[in-house]
Amino acid sequence: MPRKIIIDTDPGVDDAMAIFFALKSPELDVIGLTTIFGNVHTDLATVNALRLLEIAGRPEIPVAKGADDPMVRDYDGPVPYVHGDDGQGNLHLPPPAGRAVDQTAAEFIVEQVMAAPGEVTLVPVGPLTNIGLALRLEPRIAQNVREVVLMGGAAFCPGNASPAAEANIRNDPEAADLVFGAPWQVTMVGLDVTHNTILGPDHIDAYAALDNPIARHITRILPHYRKFFEDWYPIQGIYVHDSSAVAYVLDPALFKVERYPVRVDCTSGISRGKTWPGTGRRLLPDWEGRPAANICVEVDAHRLVELELERIRA
Ligand code: BDR
Ligand code: CA
Fold first, then answer.
1. 242-250 vs 13-23: helix axis angle to the nearest 10?
2. C-alpha closest to that of 34 among 46, 21, 22
3. Is any atom of ligand 1 closer than 6 Å to the C-beta of 308?
4. Neighbours of 232 (CB within 10 A)
5. Residue 140 CA to ligand 2 centre (angstroms)
6. Ligand number with the minimum distance to the CA of 49
7. How far apart are CA 172 and CA 288, in angstroms?
8. For the chain, which end, N or C, has fewer CB atoms within 10 Å of the first or last residue's CB respectively?
9. What percent of the chain has pLDDT above 90?
10. What is the pLDDT of residues 209-241, one digit of tens each?
11. Which of 33, 37, 241 to mutate to test the pocket of ligand 1 (most atoms within 8 A of CB)?
């Protein structure tokens, strides 16, 4: 039986790749996409999610629109210099034929999780607002999901949205702190591993040589995103963020994890959004009573990028 997953996403170039990677993996049954602000506003994230499913020939998969703003503060706004004005590398695609379901993302998540206890894996690859709202709506989802595998955070390395914080977590630290504190198994696939996983020029060329609609879309959206990385970081190609969370669901053996409870800095200071593992011989009270998260600390990056290419090729 393929494993049921819901991808909570802010597409986003790397979100698009992660969605395609999951759709092309027979071990996974993508039962829905839920959308969130982050790379773009939630309305555009929703349009993009619908478009991506149509490109993949899977328009029957439901899309539920999520929150427009973080749980406590206002949304900081999109990042067109990373993902393009349209979140898809400035392709400015025609509108999708389909539309989102009438439920909110949080309602959709609660309904799906409670309808299939122990079966649904949540894969958030954007800010964690919808997951926080779903927990508030129905706290029992924590006992009823299979697990949560999220892209976000930076435990033992610098951030990317600030020196301390990774972008998804920094976009809604309060929601992230709720998610890390709930009684479920969270796996954090953060910058500790994604900044060690590079999709380089050879692999990008290999995508360009493929002749299917998914690979063609990837090839069209990558140049704008790649330019951002090559301008800002000492790499050729792109860091593999969101697809790394999908890779963990497919094959956790690609990663080495360490287990710590996690707190998120929700103050207004310079470290807002920093994910702090509770290290040290004795846990301080702020971490006490929290479940241990799996924090990915090492990755077999070569096998990971090969696995994704193999799936997109198939
Ligand atoms: C995360 O931020 C977004 O730009 C990406 O889609 C990814 O989810 C990386 O920090
Ligand atoms: Ca994302």
1. 20
2. 46
3. no
4. 11
5. 26
6. 2
7. 22
8. N
9. 99
10. 999 999 999 999 999 999 999 999 999 999 999
11. 241
Hey, which residues are catalytic here?
10, 241
Q: What is this structure's pTM?
A: 0.98
Span 81-131, pLDDT tens digits: 999 999 999 999 999 999 999 999 999 999 999 999 999 999 999 999 999
Cα–Cα dist 63/129, whole Å: 16
Q: What is the SS3 assignment for 67?
A: coil
Q: Give 282 Cα–ligand 1 centroid separation in angstroms.
A: 33
Measured in degrees and rounded to the nearest 5, phi and psi for residue 187 equal: -115, 125
What is the C-alpha to C-alpha distance for residues 287 and 108, in angstroms, rounded to an integer?
Answer: 31
Task: Tell whether the model's pLDDT for residue 293 goes beyond 90.
Answer: yes
Tell me how far the alpha carbon of residue 282 lies from the centroid of ligand 2, in angstroms: 34
Could you tell me the two tokens for 4?
A: 């049921």
Q: Position of tokens 């990008």?
A: 204
Structural domains in the chain plus CATH codes: 3-313 (3.90.245.10)
Pick from 137, 132, 143: which is nearest to 180 by CA? 132
Check residue 45 and give left, alpha or beta (phi > 0: left; psi -120 to 50: alpha). alpha
